[in-house]
Amino acid sequence: MKSDVNIPSIYPYTEWSIREDEFLIQNNMRNEAVFAVGNGYIGMRGNFEEEYRGPEGTSISGTYLNGFYDSEPIHYPEDAYGYARNTQTMLNVTDTKIIDVLLDGERFNLFTGKILNYRRELHIKRGHLTREVEWESPTGKRISIKVRRIVCLQRKHVAAIHYEVTPVNFDGHVTFESMINGEVTNLGGKDDPRLGAAFAEQALRTEELDAQGTRAWIRHKTKNTGFTLVAAIDHDVLSWEPYNLSVTTEAQKVKMSFQVPAKQGHTVALTKFITYHTSRDIPVKEIMRRANDDMDEAKRTGFPNLETEQQEFLDRFWHRADVQIEGDPALQQGIRFNAFQLLQSAGRDAKTNIGAKGLTGEGYEGHYFWDTEIYVLPFFTYTNPEIGRGLLEYRYSILDKARDRAREMSQNGALYAWRTINGEETSAYYPAGTAQVHINADIIYAVQRYVNATGDEQFLLEKGAEMAFETARFWVDFGYFNPRRNGLFCIDAVTGPDEYTAIVSNNAYTNLMAQENLAFAYNTAIRMQEHFPEQFRLLSQRIDLGVDEIEQWKLAADRMYVPYDEELGITEQHEGFLDKEKWDFANTPKENYPLLLHYHPLVIYRHQVLKQADVVLALFLQSDHFTLAEKIRNYRYYEAITTHDSSLSPCIHSIVAAEIGLVEQAYDYFHQTARMDLDDINQNVKDGLHTAAMAGAWLSIVHGFGGMRDFGGELHFDPVLPEQWTGCGFRISYKGRLIDIHISRDTAAYTLLEGSAMDIVHRASKVSLLPGRTHQVSLLKRLEAAIFDLDGVITDTAELHYLAWKKLADELGIPFDRQVNERLKGVGRMGSLELILQNGGVTVPDEQKKEWAARKNEYYKSMIQTITPDDLLPGILPLLEELKAEGIKMAIASASENAPVVLDKLGVRDYFIAVIDPKALPKGKPEPDIFLAAADQLGIEPGNCVGIEDSSAGITAIKTAQMKAVGIGSGNGLAEADIVLDGTEKLNLAMLRKLFE
Known about the structure:
By secondary structure, the protein is an alpha+beta fold. Among the domains are: 35-310, Beta-galactosidase, Chain A, domain 5 (Distorted Sandwich); 709-779, Maltose phosphorylase, domain 3 (Sandwich); 781-797 and 867-997, HAD superfamily/HAD-like (Rossmann fold, 3-Layer(aba) Sandwich); 799-862, DNA polymerase, domain 1 (Orthogonal Bundle). The chain contains 27 helices and 39 strands. A nine-stranded antiparallel sheet has the order 1-8-9-10-11-18-15-14-13.
């Protein structure tokens, strides 16, 4: 389905910030998510400091701690063994942000008085949220307010707010009422499974609260998990004269009122320091001491120095993670906002991960999914690998829980939970939860990519190998060698990434990823045995690993079954998928998307309709498993039936579209991904940002338009630039090096900024990078190869084919004339016979067809014996000589299996480096396989090839292969060609080169 980029902007386009210039109540909840600040542990929604006094249902006040949760039993009216037993919900914790302001007792309130000036801005280069308001009270008092908020990226437990007030037209008193409020709850999503789940009663129980001097704290305990939380606040006051402090305590609140003398034009300010500590990180007995120590250190440092620390941290981050998009301010803003929010949401303590909504909202209850490994981790692996390692270490920390889950599911090894915080499964809907066992392979895929990109063998030996071995054990036990599939390894009762299809056999994505999981585990075991025997011995002993198990991993990987449809030439999403009825997209109202909110699952499951990329995701992650022709066919088929109801989908389609040459479509999908939250495309940003989609925007740039692939220990790049941009750039961390990549309209420039010399692959060519040096490579297309059809281009054997078919048809009594023959152009032998039989209304078994096709071929072979060099078409021999002299490689892409014989008879066989065997290809023209195979054998990029054809099917094949096309002949069937000539005598090298100008 087509993406929609024609969505109006919400925020002004600025390169390094997100700005709101007018307060509109209808946008408030969305803006609270967009203006969130965090550090991977603490996340604060962009709520105003003042207690919210707007209409009910227009604000979601939230502060979250990564990995801090409570749970309740899941109640099933119809229960079964192995169902998830308890929820886990990231809690909305103690609200420490509150600062109310009173002017001689008159409360500042955006909903009363007059807003004379307003601006809120998230500064993504500096890492803080600011707000500037000029306000006039109902009695005419006017003030200027400036607020700065940070959550410290270098101090896990600390946040701070600096709140300035300047009286504009009065003298008097300004009172800052700073509060710590423990009376907080989570919201719930009644009819939307993507939202959070409210608790029946308050999950945080207040055990103690107190205040001493300018400091106050509350100690809570979670109702069911028994975790302890201490939230604390302390203050500094900027005042020209002494202030008065009064403290009020309630059951779950402490309010500290700082009354400050104020003069017209003089600024007074309150700095509020905030800390959060929990027993998930610190022993209960030490929490108060740690809270006080961190608070003391933050106050000694002071707000200006905390801001300096923040700037220094972000300078280092942006040095490695920034992406530049030249000529497109909307997407430049989007990609930087996304990277910043990823940093703010990712756990960095090896105990936490990154939730589907980060730390910006309660959607999906703060759970961790496969999103981390497939979408988010690559961003960190290739920019800030130390964060990537921490995210993987979290998965290792819950490996025992995964082992427990596998046993509960009657399997060996380990099965990671589909959605979790502490490692236990919390998905109550197993068809779209536990059945997505591909999460095992997703995690190991991320381990493999991390180790490849960093060379971090310590992680592999100490943690990654054990994870790989236990998940490999699971796959061998979960699947089986199916005698009905010639002993191939099959995996049943699974759900792939597409959640609009559930509980199927042999989901292609799952099987391909499991295959890589098994192969990686096997190769790691063999390598450890050879190079790290003692560590392998100890690990094998600890997990009771036998040699026979390791061999089973290899056997299962080697014999993995992946469903494939020969008629369509595509990988089948799962067994039976193509037998289902296609969804009626034409008659589905726009308001009925996402489908999951408007149709019963069984209605969706029985149709060919996708929520998100499934096979298309495999085309990217398992890129070397597919030919380019297969990628084109699979993408074309599945893209047309994908709703993109999941925010994970557009970025993957962007990547694959860029690879197969659909650059405009790739741009559209990238735009949808990069601006998903800033433009609120899915109309649900209020519930939290789309973390995986934000990472997907980076994937689209680097793997899509940058064309980066990391296979075989080498980095490969195949860049392409959308027409809308003048350039783009990004940096990649790889094995201790930092590489800068810049793509312009005409060139790609690679600069090795840090580390020792290395080789990369640009398209098909090796490029050596030296420290501090820039290597430029042209991106301009140029003629390097010419690929010819045979009949009607090199020679005209069409008459011989016609006579051979005519002879067979006459013998069989089937009508056949030149009009029917015209339809056979560019079509292979069996395809031509099918057309002849269809025209005659004849149906016969396949064996009979093969016998008749062979008979026709014998007739044709006897006729071609009469061919001589004189049968070359006009101008062909001089063209071949000219191409050869200029070093232009040549190949034949003919549907005729007799092409080698014909070329020999013509005396031109030696001009052609490759003559493609059509029998070796899955699909003939108009599919691009034969032309792509020719380019591959020549070692030339398809974009640097020209194809020369006389049939519409051939021209379509050439253009689908993203080559220049020359049509020979006349008629509308050749209109798709870049140029059409009425005869071969007009072919020459200069004309072919002109096509590339």
